Amino acid sequence: MRPELKIEIRPYWENGTVSFIDYELRGQRIKASPDIPMFCRYDEAFGGLCPFPEMDYLEAGDDRGALCYREKEITSFNSGMRCFGYFPERAVEGTLSWRYRAYPRILPEGYRSSPYYDFRAEPGGLNGSGFFSLLLPATERELDVRLRWNMSSMPPGSRGIFSFGEGTVEKTMKVTELGISLFTVGMVRAVENDSLGVYYLSEPEFEIRPIAEKLFPIFQYEKNFFHDPDAKFKVFLRRDPFVISNGGSACRYAFLSGYSAFGGFDPEKWFNVLIHEMTHTWPYMDDSNVGEGTWFTEGATEYYCTWLPYVGGFLDDDFTVKCLNEKIGKRYYQNPFREMPNMEIPKIQWKERSAQECPYGRGFLYLANTDAQLRRAGKGSIDDIVKQFGWDRPMHPGDWKDFLRERLGQKAVDQFEEMIGGKLLEPDPDIFENRFQVVKDEIELNGQKVLSYHFETKK
Fold this sequence. Notes:
The chain has about 450 residues and is α+β, with helices and mostly antiparallel strands. It has three domains: about 1-185, Immunoglobulin-like (Sandwich); about 190-280; about 295-455, Neutral Protease, domain 2, CATH 1.10.390. The protein is about 25% helix and about 30% strand. The strands form five sheets. Strands 5-4-8-2-1-12-15 form a seven-stranded mixed β-sheet. Strand 22 and strand 23 (about 450-455) form a beta hairpin. Helix 5 packs across helix 7 and helix 9 packs antiparallel against helix 10 (about 410-420). The protein starts with a strand and ends with a strand. About 45% of the residues are buried.
């Protein structure tokens, strides 16, 4: 039998927002001993920018009573975050339970922005993610999870919504899926239809409904393209108390996006962020060793979130060319780190934001080039492999190389190795089915005149 995990989440309302949340978790058939941790805390992710929230009153117990424990750092399954295990002083017997209180993050002075997985409150409520709010069992097995919101300390009409469902949710999943989930709780406002909803806590200065309604048909088109007709997607919004915002962080079937409390909202830019994060639902390569899969997961998302709305007839040539010049031109060709190897980028990407953007543009261009090569050779499309994998079954670099070798031969594998090593890419002559004009440029970068390209609509 699978281990079981029951989670009760009780938020407390004070001064127009959620002041803290009490968590109580109970696990059946979860093994733990002085050498095996009961549960883990994930912390200091993304270069230390995303912490686990401050917590209090942590207690653990089992059928024999209270459990004393020691905490120590252990190997994390993901190189981008630290992991701390809680080890009991004796073996656990029967039902393992633990409870604690978590407080919303107080942002440091001069804070600008970071991934949106942190535990953060604003007027109207609070939002965050599983990894950075839940002390999760230390197991790689699937769990039968029952997640319940206790709204007894919240105002009438409050909603608690996770990426995988609203209210009480029962679902079989791995700890990583629970961890990467997103949620919002409070006096939630919404624009939604049967398969896509936008949820927010504070009323922004811009109109959400027109943008959401542009997304509805694009999401329908994409989920049919990826053979996921029952997919439902949630957009959680967060009001940022700093000037530079409009970022986003995704999980499967949901993402959390920020907007600045100081205004300066760009509807077109935000619309592009929404499409990108929405498309993250499907293309996926394992990136536990951060950098190995970033080029694909981000690059394929950029490719499909730009190409599918265009070929589906939702966005025109002019809009798409602007996207290409932003996502490939600015993020890659004009990027001072454009020739840095993929595995070197994670070492600096949270200090040098331009470096963080490079795999997006590099991966996008590389995949568009590869698709052109495949179509020209009559060997199908990158769609053929992308649709075989996803969050449930992540692709690995070896799968991609096998695909290249089978369809295009060893030369394509060598080109892949050159790409991940940082060799500058040039657009394939048949890129994007020759629907756009590719123009060669010379630009100044890092104090030198270098080769570049941009895209134009065809006359």
